[in-house]
Amino acid sequence: MSVIKPFRGFRPPVDIVEKLASRPYDVLNSEEARKECEGNPYSLLHVTKAEIDVPAGTDEHDPEVYLQVVKNYNAFKDYGWLVQDKEEKLYIYAQSMNPTDANAHWQYGIVACAYSEDYVNKIIKKHELTRKDKEEDRMKHVRITNANVEPVFFAYPAVSRIDEIVAGITSEKPLYDFIAKEDGFGHRFWVIDDKKIIDELVELFDKQVPAMYIADGHHRSAAAALVGQEKKEHNPSHTGKEEYNFFMTVIFPDNQLNIIDYNRVVKDLNGLSKEDFLAALNDAYEVEDMGTEIYKPAKLHEFSMYLDGHWYKMNAKAGKFDDNDPIGVLDVTILSNHVLDKILGIKDLRTDKRIDFVGGIRGLGELKRRVDNGEMKVAFALYPVSMQQIIDIADSGNIMPPKTTWFEPKLRSGLVIHELN
After folding, report:
1. Low-confidence ranges of the chain (pLDDT < 50)
2. In what helix (H) or strand (E) does residue 407 lie, and over which residues does it extend?
3. What's the CA gap between 38 and 15, in Å, rounded?
4. Could you count the other beta carbons within 10 Å of the beta carbon of residue 413?
């Protein structure tokens, strides 16, 4: 069963939270982060992307950058921009992509610490591979700050009693409530002070949540768990109850999450003419020319393709996929097997420079733009995977193909921070 615990979070005062809370480190490059922070000394990007405060052009993994991370993080605490709660708490964090809409969808996550050993023992389950270089970068960040500065995005199978508790708390006015100017997404935050409620939530996770699933933040999860293991090995008096055994998460019920499409663009047709390429598609797909208006896939195993000014609907033919295989059922697998590999000669999605990936948050117009400007030759839009597909893959011990899931909204960093001492 799943272990969670409350913690003494470091949080910003209400009057600066909107300026301090930032987008996560991995959705901005250094130049974008530098521009986003112009005139805003409060932004947590000064901690999560500290290369913006050293000379331009400095490699983001340079030792000077990590020294700047520590300097900036300590300054935030010294200035009173991050203040630690006196008692251990749980928190609730809500997000919406359309916060001004009266019928907007909000998703409500519990902010808590997860147990590193649950990651090691696969009670916290992953569906993506991690890269050692990215793990090491995040491990350095955790080591030098001695903190989980940014949370990991988890999902859990919804439990009605947890929903009831969260609904009761969130019926009250939130402590933080703002709309981020960069994307217009809404963010709300509550502090759970009542020890009885905290204890009940901890027990509910222990008794009724068999596993938690990493939705977004595989490298942060791996880094946090590995640092916990390091500290364990270097502590001869280790008991398992030390704060370093836990890392910060926001845990959402699976039925509230919004997964959007993650699409593909390819530079060329692998030497084929347009006519030969379309003919080759007929082996695995029913292909229909939909004209010049953007066409979005409407169901599983339906794709859309943009080529030479036209959108095409592509329905995968029966027998070309396996609905009983958690990997074979995925549309990314079907496209990879029958088009990217077999026809276009793209064997490794992680390394092939002929393919790029476009998050659905940018819209299908971005696919059209990149083909029309000549940068790419063809684009493919996919129907989003479901949370159940992710759970099935994680439960089976399998790994999703690269660039399959795109969760939105992203977690804002800086609403609360967890220190490991």
Report:
1. none
2. strand 406-407
3. 19
4. 21
